[in-house]
Design brief:
- By secondary structure, this protein is mainly beta.
- It folds into 2 domains: about 30 residues; about 250 residues, Jelly Rolls (Sandwich), CATH 2.60.120.
- Helix content is about 10%, strand content about 45%.
- Strands 1, 3, 4, 5, 6, 9, 16, 17, 18 and 20 form a 10-stranded mixed beta sheet that branches.
- The longest helix is centred in the first third of the chain and has 23 residues.
Length: about 280
């Protein structure tokens, strides 16, 4: 066998081996993302979102429907969700999951969910948002996803019968800011299911510095069996081997809450430029 033949044979072996390696071992996460849901808030699209009126976490505000008292506004291509001190007590009709009615409060706010509108299995969820004016004590803006079989209000389908945060009703927090702690900071991560409808907020979570009053993108994606969290497209955190704990369709939630008794005046605003979901081709 002459040298030319040997070189040609070696080239064929290398190319063939490389193709086999690529076809057998190429990880799914290098595949292309395809957008299957995008809302840039040119108007409030009730085929994508509904108001979610619920009392959780002993929050101090009352969620109002239909943008009442300007708690939800879509204008100039963005969504604004507000917490507002209206200066007098309001008869709230929000209930917790045990049937308890929220007490009268001077604080009202907006919360929307894509429940029974836009729900997806795994993939990647992203929102571009900011908190106008930055951090204030007691504020609690959030961007997160929840399992579609969650049994909390509104219950609209027969299979919405699983309690938080069990499989089917699991929670992944993409962006949360608690104003009583660190300014210009957010936390991200999954909620650990402890069984018996109880969860651990902190074991799978981590915090990062960010300029809250500037627009940033916050996302979570399934990469193999991991949950990968990104800030402005850069990975900041990873829940390893937790992705398969969320096999169910999930819906998105955007809300602005008042979480403690620290006083506030006027209004707080979370502004959302857009929300999207993607899947891998």
């Amino acid at each position: 066998m002459n040298n030319t033949t040997k070189i040609l044979l070696l080239f064929i072996i290398l190319v063939t081996g490389g193709l086999l390696l690529e076809s057998n071992n190429e990880p799914n996460f290098v595949k292309t993302w395809e957008v299957d849901f995008f809302d840039d808030f040119n108007y409030f699209n009730d085929e994508n979102w509904q108001d979610q009126r619920i009392w959780v976490n002993d929050e101090k505000q009352c969620y109002l429907p239909d943008g009442e008292l300007n708690t939800r506004e879509v204008s100039d291509g963005t969504l604004k969700l507000r917490v507002i001190n209206i200066g007098e007590e309001y008869e709230c009709d929000n209930y917790d999951k045990f049937g308890n009615l929220h007490p009268k409060t001077e604080y009202v706010a907006g919360r929307i969910a894509s429940k029974n509108r836009k729900e997806f299995i795994k993939g990647k969820w992203t929102a571009r948002l900011r908190v106008i004016g930055g951090s204030k004590k007691s504020m609690f803006p959030a961007w997160w996803i929840l399992g579609a079989r969650n049994n909390e209000s509104p219950v609209q389908e027969a299979n919405e019968d699983i309690c938080w945060p069990s499989v089917g009703s699991g929670e992944i927090d993409i962006f949360e800011h608690h104003g009583d702690y660190t300014k210009n900071h957010f936390t991200t991560g999954a909620i650990k299911d402890l069984g018996d409808c109880t969860g651990d907020w902190w074991s799978y979570r981590k915090g990062f510095d960010v300029t809250l009053d500037e627009f940033h993108t916050y996302s979570v994606e399934w990469e193999g069996s991991d949950l990968v969290y990104r800030l402005d497209d850069l990975e900041v955190y990873r829940n390893e081997n937790l992705g398969d704990s969320y096999p169910e369709p999930m819906f998105a939630i955007l809300n602005f809450a008042k979480i403690t008794d620290n006083p506030m005046q006027g209004e707080w605003v979370m502004e959302v430029d857009w929300v999207k979901h993607e899947y891998r081709l």
